[in-house]
Description:
The chain has helices at residues 14-25, 32-41, 45-54, 62-75, 91-103, 118-132, 139-153, 156-163, 175-189; strands at 4-8, 28-31, 82-85, 110-115, 166-170. It is an alpha/beta fold. The protein is globular.
Amino acid sequence: MKNIIIFGAPGSGKGTYSEEIKNRYNMGHISTGDVLRAEIKNGTELGQVAKGYIDQGQLIPDELMIDILAKTYDALPAGKGVIFDGFPRTIAQAEALKKMLAERGHDMGMMIELIVDEETLMARLLRRAEIEGRADDNEETIRNRFQVYHAKTEPLSKWFESEGIRHAFTWKGSKDLMLEEIFAGIEKEN
Ligand code: ATP
Ligand code: MG
């Protein structure tokens, strides 16, 4: 399988669809958000640094994030495609990912963009706040995350377009329909 980059706003379903894709095609999965939350839970030094940014809805600095990503990637079993969920989030991270993969003789594969209207996103994140109790799922922090997304992450959509690997899927109110379209998109590329 080709590598897959899952891209979209907070709450767009990156984690949900990554899980479905991973199970269907037996791929590796890196969620940078999950990696950071595990570090926080284990009380590591990295976790302490990360918590300061996450609780404010800000991004972890690029150099740190790129380092974490490369280590996580190298720890995965080779030979399967990998799903990148929540990385890259800046142009610098995207350039670094491309370079890191090229150095290993791999490539980015395909990028899947999840397009969801902001009203739906906010409703999902507030509901997740009640269920999972994530510290950064409160209305003020969510607003910051949307702002950061628009300022730093959204411009990457064009970057992927110019790389010729962007595939966009728009939420039309049904998870099953979205999945069907995504699976068809993946199978066309493999
Ligand atoms: P969802 O998973 O529902 O789409 P999300 O994108 O807001 O929501 P995560 O991907 O879990 O959530 O990220 C949570 C937080 O972790 C981010 O707000 C940010 O602080 C930090 N983080 C995760 N990935 C990165 C990254 N690639 N670069 C910088 N910070 C990151
Ligand atoms: Mg996530």
